[in-house]
């Protein structure tokens, strides 16, 4: 992300700048990024289940990613990188914003976690391939989604696991994620542009074009009783796992 490879930049500069402005507040659970702190345990529940299913692991294992490498693309200040490291992975985080990477590295060091953070466009970084690749709430900020997914697929090792999440492009998401959520301050104004959202069907088709197939897909929904949770409803947001086609 960023301008590490000018010939193949997929993250819009204004998007990187927007999140850079929020970097210092990223780890404040009551701050401007509070919504991310609330959804992160739901994402991690899906990611953990996907890890166990993909590698036939023991759900009781504390470190199911021991001996495996993980890459989080669009890592922000490290909200996914840190739990992946605690699950035993050797983690690399890449983000378009140097400010995000700086905050992420400082927070990881303070927590005693050895995570490699890099600023730039993933296509322009010589970082090899990874057993697990994650990219959550990133593709909706990307100008050329197919080019971005080709870069993502190129980072996934043979036999590897990919997990991505994004808002759906529905009437409900336009009203709630863009309109209401920003109006009441649940998300910073300008976080989302509804026309850039992608439907699950479009997402799966693009993944297929870059040689990946979806293994599992769940909605992320909200209710008063449960709060944010994994759901059969994909009206607002969804998360999926994928792998290289056989």
TrEMBL record:
Keywords on record: Methyltransferase, S-adenosyl-L-methionine, Transferase, Ubiquinone biosynthesis
Entry keyword annotation includes Transferase: yes
Keyword Manganese included in the entry's annotation: no
UniProt binding sites for S-adenosyl-L-methionine: 43, 74, 95, 136
Any one of the GO BP annotations: methylation
One Pfam match: Methyltransf_23
EC number(s) reported in the record: 2.1.1.222, 2.1.1.64
Family per record: Belongs to the methyltransferase superfamily. UbiG/COQ3 family.
UniProt name for this protein: Ubiquinone biosynthesis O-methyltransferase
Originating gene: ubiG
């Amino acid at each position: 992300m960023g301008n590490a490879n000018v010939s193949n930049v997929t993250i819009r500069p204004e998007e990187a700048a927007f999140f850079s402005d929020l970097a210092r507040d990223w780890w404040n659970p009551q701050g401007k990024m509070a919504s991310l702190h609330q959804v992160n345990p739901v994402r991690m529940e899906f990611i953990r289940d996907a890890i166990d299913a993909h590698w036939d692991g023991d759900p009781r294992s504390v470190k199911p990613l021991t001996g495996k490498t993980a890459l989080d693309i669009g890592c922000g200040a490290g909200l996914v990188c840190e739990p992946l490291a605690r699950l035993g992975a050797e983690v690399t985080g890449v983000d378009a914003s140097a400010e995000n990477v700086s905050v992420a590295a400082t927070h990881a060091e303070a927590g005693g976690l050895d995570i490699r953070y890099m600023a730039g466009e993933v296509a322009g970084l010589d970082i090899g391939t990874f057993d697990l690749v994650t990219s959550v709430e990133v593709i909706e900020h990307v100008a050329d989604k197919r080019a971005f997914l080709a870069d993502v697929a190129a980072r996934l090792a043979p036999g590897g696991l990919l997990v991505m999440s994004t808002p759906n492009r529905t009437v409900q998401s336009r009203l709630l994620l863009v309109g209401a959520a920003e109006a009441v301050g649940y998300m910073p104004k300008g976080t989302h542009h509804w026309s850039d959202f992608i439907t699950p069907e479009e997402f799966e088709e693009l993944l297929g074009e870059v040689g990946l197939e979806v293994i599992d897909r769940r909605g992320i929904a909200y209710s008063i009783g449960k709060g944010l949770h994994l759901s059969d409803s994909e009206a607002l947001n969804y998360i999926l796992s994928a792998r290289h086609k056989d």
